[in-house]
Amino acid sequence: MKSTGRVHSFETMGTVDGPGIRFVVFMQGCPLRCQYCHNPDTWDTSQGKEYSVNEIMAEIKKYKTYMESSGGGVTFTGGEPLLQAEFLSQVAKACKDENIHVAVDTSGFILNDYVKELFKYTDLVLLDIKSYDKDVYHSLTGARLEPTLKTLDYLKEQDIKVWVRYVVVPELTDDLDTIKALSNHLDKYPNISKIEPLAFHKMGEYKWKELGLTYSLEDTKEPSGELMEKVQEIFATNGKNVIINT
């Protein structure tokens, strides 16, 4: 088993990446190139700092009291944490040995034996579905939609709790008919307990410029409150639990 993993950074008091107060581990490396990514500095798999399982657990356990009092836990995000699933499965197992809630924030682009092992110790998957239109998905991320839907099927088979996240980008992922189609598809999954429509923002734009990357959404405005309400209404059909983070 891989003894170390590359970590971009830690967030010690996260409140938006799962229930309660969370220790958030940003893993280094991502195979997707999302146009709206606010962490492009996590893409390069050779960057970040190497940590052992014990070193990460030492950081996590400092905040165990906050997690327990708030119903929180640890969230592995990135980047794409599933790129380092072989290593993270060991960290997640150590968390479960400490009775710490484990969440994984992922695009679902990777599904292999290492990922399946990680999911054994995962209480919640925050699944980012970039678009339900295959062409838009590819244009937006440089990748295919199908692997994400395959991962969603696997999570259903294993009865692993899922929160779906969907970023609303004007003139890119805001087509209401496509959102309705996605909403209908998600009705097939009883393990989805929450859907989070997220409003596009530009808080990471400066990172693109610092890295010498072209930010193609420079002229794109944030979605209106009216649009976000429409998206919320679509996802809320059939009694789905929908919350909006702006």
Protein architecture, described:
The chain has 246 residues and is an alpha/beta fold. It has one domain (4-239): Aldolase class I (TIM Barrel, Alpha-Beta Barrel). Helices cover 35% and strands 22% of the residues. The protein has helices at residues 53-61, 64-70, 85-97, 113-120, 134-141, 146-157, 176-186, 205-210, 225-235, and strands spanning 4-14, 22-27, 49-52, 73-77, 101-106, 124-128, 161-168, 192-199. The chain has an eight-stranded mixed β-sheet. Helix 4 (113-120) links the parallel strand 5 (101-106) and strand 6 (124-128). Helix 1 (53-61) crosses helix 3 and helix 3 packs parallel to helix 4. The chain is globular and about 45 Å long. The model has no long low-confidence stretch (mean pLDDT 94).
Task: Report the biggest beta sheet as strand number plus sense, adding barrel if it closes.
Answer: 8 strands, mixed
* CATH architecture label name: Alpha-Beta Barrel
Q: Estimate the strand proportion.
A: 15-25%
Mean pLDDT: 94
Helix content: 25-40%
Q: Write the CATH homologous superfamily.
A: Aldolase class I
The low-confidence runs, each spanning 5 or more residues with pLDDT under 50, are none
Instruction: Give the tally of β-strands.
Output: 8
| CATH fold node name | TIM Barrel
Number of helices: 9
The ordered H/E elements are EEEHHEHEHEHHEHEHH
Q: Which strand order do you get reading across the main beta sheet?
A: 3-1-2-4-5-6-7-8
The shape, in one word, is: globular
- Please, how many domains? 1
The first-level CATH class is given as Alpha Beta
What is the C-alpha radius of gyration, as a whole number of Å?
17 Å
